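Team,

Forwarding the record for the chain on the shared tracking sheet. I've put the sequence and predicted structure together so nobody has to dig through attachments.
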Amino acid sequence: MRMRRKKNLDERLNNCREVMLYMQCQNEHANEPLSEEFFADSNKTFGNNNPLYLEIGCGKGGFAIEFARKNPNINLIAVEKTPNVLVTGMEEQMKLKLPNLKFCMGQAEYLCHLFHDSTIDRIFLNFSCPFPKNQYASHRLTHERFLEIYRRIMKPDAEIHQKTDNMHFFEFSLEKLSQNGFGLKNVSLDLHNSAFEGNIMTEYEKRFTELGQPIYRLEAFLR
């Protein structure tokens, strides 16, 4: 079911410009030149040289805000394509004003319009849409077309950390990552009954865990 558009959404988004980055030229048919002004990195965006992490599909921003709060020496940019959802996290950040967190409304297909090559130290994929039908496999965020984008923007020693409740999507991710030059480590088929420490739960994760569903997790690195 489609989410009802939030009241005064455009005005609310505009009021959050202080914590929001702009992703340019999100149109595959456009030939607009890219402007250096809108590329992001730690020094330019946060005024320091701390590691820069990226969350793709941040939803309402619960994970991003908690991660930034607990890790003040790591910068995080949280990307979400749905403004109706993203505005919740941005409004919370406007209250908290965490110095190491920015949000961006944008699509993963255009991450190379926001980051230069070898910019990102870690990518989080938290409960991405699994697109269960085979004809939509190319929309999954661990499909090879996205992995090629991640490879470009990741530093050589960077990692991808993925969590999902969907077993078939997790199997798909393991296969695609292995086939496309990524190594795997710390693979868990039941995160909350494992020895992993320091997990930050997302909104979806809390819901699925309460239902007794296992959470699948992996870490991938460039070979």
